[in-house]
Prior knowledge:
Layout: E1 5-10, E2 25-26, E3 29-30, H1 31-41, E4 47-51, H2 55-63, H3 83-98, E5 104-107, H4 117-130, E6 134-140, E7 151-153, E8 159-161, E9 178-180, E10 186-189, H5 190-194, E11 203-207, H6 219-233
Amino acid sequence: MTVNILGLIPARGGSKAIPRKNVAELAGKPLIAYTCAAALDSQGLTRVILNTDDPEIADVGRACGVDVPFMRPEELAEDDTPILPVIQHALIWLQEQQNFLVDIVVLLQPTSPLRRAEHIDSAIDLLMKSGADTVVSVVAVPHNFNPVSVMHLNLQGNLIPFEAGPTILRRQDKPRVFARNGPAVLAVRRETIECDRLYGNVVLPLEMGRIESLDIDDADDLALAEFWLERLSEK
């Protein structure tokens, strides 16, 4: 039985911190080009599409070799539009217009330029073999940002632990915790999406390193990504 696995790259035209962020230059290429390349290099994806409301971004995606079968409706391209209805619209369009029934969606944010094809394939492999509803990429939280290390100010302005309980000072005694890294990769089954959820009952992590987890939010992140891309290209 064929399993259709869709790589979906969502890329709105609007951006606040970095104007035109998805096509901002990064080491000589548009930012979105790195995600397009990783998706096209993946062995596990059946198909890759770019989902955008912006003609320029669509042209960049096509130049990178990615299909843009439709333009995202304006009502799904607002600043506060959640990603779930964007995915649902894409799945319905592909099924109704092209008779392409998606079994698994792999969401690939274009703001993760250091994510590679092997991360995508590892997420797909984990989802398929485990039977999980969702696999999401994460990065280990540095020990100094661990919840047991975090503090806040009370009403009197005194610094107190964020979590109640004994103070844990030694790094090796702190619980291991993770943060979503964008996420760079989120693989989810169609049935979960049809239940209006991205995270089903069984959610498994795909751990990625700190450098490859870099998520572009502002100009400093863009400069850091360029630094690492240049360093990695020298190896």
